[in-house]
TrEMBL record:
It comes from Anaeromyces robustus. Residues 476-520, 559-603, 609-653, 656-697 form the Chitin-binding type-1 domain. This is Chitin-binding type-1 domain-containing protein. GO terms for molecular function: chitin binding; hydrolase activity; metal ion binding. PROSITE patterns: CHIT_BIND_I_1, CHIT_BIND_I_2. Residues 407-439, 525-562 are annotated as: Disordered.
């Protein structure tokens, strides 16, 4: 009984052993023992999952043997011949790729690469001129599970395009060193609604058997793939007009792109890499507010290789509404103008210098500005090893110990209460004045503790309360009842926009003085409403008052001088403390003495770098001043426990549920217990309750 069972088990083992010990890679290599250029990898069951072939000299039977292993998921076929002499005019190598029609037998194939790599050299280093291969009809047909297709060194035909369009599960297409004739019909490619990645790269040295003298990438081919989210284009000779509504990531050679306006229409574009081979005007970036990540890379073709020339970034500009969080500068010379632009990027948290030099045009102030980035958080700056200047001063760092946003109220109420008690007697007169100012980001009622001493005879008490309600602009650039006030020094137009020109400031054009300053001819009007409550017996009166300041409007000057006796600077210029017109920080900064009545000025409430503190002043009304003197809205700027400077902006209690000295007050009518926690029960509101930081019973 037992012997029979053992014999039966042994028989089953012998039957199963070929499957247990299958090694299809070794089997295939044994079959092609005279061809050493086969590389393969088995899966866990011993079946081939990856196969790489150097197919020079392969017959159709050889290919069919390889295609009999239907477990293959990844296949790379390479035709390789680079042995032609220098400046060989006509490489003698077969261009027909016509033995691959049984690829359809690979039912599990997901990744396919056909690489026709045949060229001769056109210089003493590396200037390859390629021969292009031709894929036979029906080669790419019926590859139903294919997800990734790479075709290198191919001269495309209409049959190739039609067969590619039948690959319903294709997700990635990569073509490199190719010819795509503009006469081909690409409409059928629009059926490929799963393709998300597209890469199209030319060889800059042209081709032997191309019908074109230019390196054309047809716009019709690019724009057929409407589902693409990531696109890479390099070495094209034609003007592009990219129209891909789902594009999120783009790598683009700027060569021949005189018109870059199509970039503005790519609403979903978030990551942009631009490659430049010569001097380029980068002012076009000013209109790309949708970009979160930007990389700028300079290249040049020198002795056959793409090398970094370290070009200058001419007219690098971004708008005030830009969304840039990461900036990579690759192989550029960094100068003062670049650093000035970088310091004004309000959302920047990552800056990378990769192979970039700090040029001789970068002064000490620029170096110090870069150094000051170490105080920002979150912030990461990476200087590559060949960033040559001031290596000891500028260090690679990463500040990540801060995260999260704080939601704050959009209403700030400032209440000033002055209580004067005057007491008269036969012998003496005394006057006591107490002033209390409270600023909060929520609607709060604060009672000032005031002691009034009453002595015999006559007592008169006068209470004056002035309340200014300031609603900071909740939508940048907007103002009015729904949005709030403009920043200091700006006017609110009839249509609810903040600005400084007559279109915004002229009373005759509808300027709204309750939301900013206004002017009319030689008059500048600021409206202040003061409510005075006077208690005398049982009589109460409220008197609103409006104050209008009138000043003489200075005449324009064309002498370069400005100020009293000279006049106003030309439009767009500032009048310095010493009476000269200009546009730099020394002319325009209020803290440097800029004369706003004779030109524009940079307001003292925030510096051009977004700095704040004793030397710079306060942040805009909806921002906080961090411990290190930078304006922002997140917890690292607003958290009291992190050193937020309340005298120069808002601050918030960032320790939820905590209160007390160094932390802040409880909210929503809660009490601060003696142990520094917020709550509403008797444990919080009775014995030991800290009245300075919340309600108490």
């Amino acid at each position: 009984m037992k012997l029979g069972f053992l014999l039966k088990s042994f028989s089953l083992f012998l039957i199963a052993s070929p499957f247990v010990y299958a090694n299809e890679c070794e089997e295939l290599k044994t079959h092609f023992k005279d061809i050493p250029t086969i590389t393969c990898e088995n899966d866990n069951d011993g079946k081939i999952k990856t196969l790489k072939l150097n197919a020079n000299g392969f017959s159709k039977d050889d290919f069919d043997k390889c295609f009999s292993y239907d477990s293959i998921k990844e296949l790379i076929i390479k035709y390789d011949d680079t042995n032609y002499g220098l400046y060989d005019e006509s490489p003698d190598f077969p261009t027909e790729i016509d033995n691959l029609t049984n690829l359809k037998n690979l039912k599990n194939l997901e990744i396919l690469k056909i690489d026709y790599n045949v060229y001769s050299n056109n210089c003493v280093t590396h200037c390859p001129k390629y021969l292009l291969g031709k894929i036979a009809k029906n080669t790419l047909k019926d590859l139903n599970n294919l997800k990734s297709l790479s075709l290198y060194g191919i001269k495309f035909t209409q049959d190739n395009i039609n067969e590619i369009s039948s690959l319903k599960n294709l997700e990635s297409l990569d073509i490199n060193i190719f010819e795509l004739s503009e006469s081909l019909d690409f409409k059928s490619l629009s059926n490929l609604d799963k393709v998300t990645t597209l890469s199209i790269v030319h060889n800059p040295y042209l081709y032997y058997n191309s019908d074109k003298k230019d390196l054309i990438i047809p716009n019709e081919f690019i724009n057929a793939f409407k589902s693409v989210t990531e696109l890479n284009i390099d070495n094209q000779d034609n003007q592009l007009n990219i129209d891909l509504p789902n594009l999120k990531k783009l790598t683009l050679d700027l060569t021949n792109q005189e018109d870059k306006s199509y970039l503005e229409k790519l609403d979903k574009l978030r990551k942009l890499t631009v490659i430049e081979y010569s001097k380029e005007d980068f002012s076009f970036l000013e209109k790309l507010n949708q970009i979160n990540e930007l990389a700028i890379q300079f290249k040049t073709i020198t002795f056959g290789y793409a090398e970094p020339p370290k070009g200058y970034l001419t007219n690098l500009k971004f708008s005030e509404n830009n969304s840039l969080k990461r900036l990579d500068l690759n192989s550029v010379y960094v100068d003062d103008s670049n650093v000035d632009v970088i310091m004004k990027l309000p959302n920047l948290n990552t800056l990378v210098f990769n192979g970039s030099n700090l040029s001789s045009k970068l002064g000490e102030e620029g170096i110090n500005n870069l150094k000051s980035l170490e105080d920002r958080c979150p912030m990461e700056v990476n200087y590559s090893s060949n960033t040559s200047r001031d290596k000891n001063k500028l260090i690679t760092f990463r500040n990540v110990s801060c995260s999260g946003e704080i939601k704050t109220s959009s209403t700030t109420t400032t209440t000033t209460t002055t209580k004067t008690s005057t007491t008269s007697t036969d012998k003496s007169k005394s006057t006591t004045t107490t002033t209390t100012t409270t600023t909060t980001t929520t609607t709060t009622t604060t009672k000032a503790s005031t002691t009034t001493t009453s002595i015999d005879k006559t007592t008169t008490t006068t209470t004056t309360t002035t309340t200014n309600k300031t609603q900071p602009t909740v939508v940048k650039g907007r103002c009015g009842k729904e949005y709030g006030n403009c920043p200091s020094g700006q006017c609110c137009s009839k249509y609810g926009w903040c600005g400084k020109t007559d279109e915004y400031c002229a009373v005759s054009k509808g300027c709204q003085s309750e939301f900013g300053k206004c002017s009319d001819g030689n008059k500048t009007t600021t409206t202040t409403t003061t409510t005075t409550t006077t208690k005398s017996g049982s009589t109460t009166s409220k008197i609103p008052r409006t104050t209008t300041k009138t000043s003489k409007k200075p005449e324009p000057t064309d002498s370069g001088k400005c100020g009293e006796g000279y006049g106003k600077c030309p439009t767009g210029q500032c009048c310095s403390k010493f009476g000269w017109c200009g546009k730099s920080y020394n002319y325009c900064a209020v803290i440097q003495g800029c004369q706003s009545e004779y030109g524009i000025c940079t307001e003292n409430n925030t510096s051009i770098e977004g700095k704040c503190g004793k030397e710079y002043g306060s942040c805009p009304s909806d921002q906080c001043c961090s411990k290190h003197g930078w304006c922002g809205k997140s917890v690292e700027y607003c958290g009291i426990s992190l050193g937020c400077q309340s005298e120069f902006g808002k601050c918030e209690n960032d320790l939820k549920g905590r209160c007390g000295k160094g932390i802040g007050k409880c909210s929503n009518g809660q009490c601060c217990s003696k142990f520094g926690y917020c709550g509403t029960s008797s444990d919080y509101c009775d014995s030991g309750c800290q009245s300075k930081f919340g309600k108490c019973n």
